[in-house]
Amino acid sequence: MTMVLGAFGLFSAWPLIYVINNAFKPLNEIFLFPPRLFVQNPTFNNFKDLFTIIGNSWIPFSRYIFNTVFITTAGTLGTVFVGSMAAFPLAKYKFPGSKVMSSLIVYSLMFSSSVTAIPNYIIMSKLGMIDSYWAVIIPAIGSTLGLYLMKNNIVQIPDSLLEASKMDGASEFKIYFSIIMPLSKPAWITLIVLSFQSLWGTTGGTFIYAEKLKPVSYTLSQIVSAGVARTGVASAVSLIMLVVPVTVFIISQSNVIETMATSGMK
């Protein structure tokens, strides 16, 4: 059984190993057919070419990094707090329409981002937020995935624990910060990982037009779109964009697995 699981693990790790090796391959190895998994003559030329191109940009690369960090941080924190605060009453209180609302939340998970792109654009346009950070951050905060994960986790917290806190004079916010959030730690850590990965790779799409507001992923995607000559640079870009979200996932994978098991998501 261990050998079978190990074989599946190696198979799953194959794309990651391929991306890492490709980033250090010279062009003649990248275009080699049949392709080789491991690099034969490792080189840092792909990264040197990438940094040379970045250095010639009229917008400082540090600005792109700031844009990505701000969008990712604000969107992730907003998703966690809004999702958890909305999930608390939905999971622990009965009010008219609560069951219908819970069903709508589940149904909303069936819609892909391409389906909601136009409605999101119309709403952001009406609010005057097009060509700003908030055009990306607010739709991310409004995602129902966070609400779904948090609700399914909070509903497992014993009601007797909340009732005892109320008898001791704890307010709703006290219960939320002192009981709900600590006990639902795996859920909100998972939500941080999922939201971080989504926002880290966003290009701003049709929401951001000003070059000074664009994130790193957009800049790197433009660099690698120049053609075959930048295939090596594209490999380096793929590795750079992969390192951060993979690292975040590895650090928090135990919480992610626990949350997926309790929420019923696979």
UniProtKB/TrEMBL annotation:
UniProt xrefs under InterPro entries: MetI-like, MetI-like_sf
Cell location: Cell membrane
TM helices/strands, residue ranges: 64-88, 100-121, 133-150, 187-209, 229-251
Coiled-coil residues: none
A Pfam short name: BPD_transp_1
Sorted UniProt keywords: Cell membrane, Membrane, Transmembrane, Transmembrane helix, Transport
PROSITE patterns in alphabetical order: ABC_TM1
GO terms classed as biological process: transmembrane transport
Membrane topology label: Multi-pass membrane protein
Residues in ABC transmembrane type-1 domain copies: 65-252
GO cellular component, one term: plasma membrane
Recorded family membership: Belongs to the binding-protein-dependent transport system permease family.
Protein's name according to its UniProt entry: ABC transporter permease
Protein's organism: Clostridium thermosuccinogenes
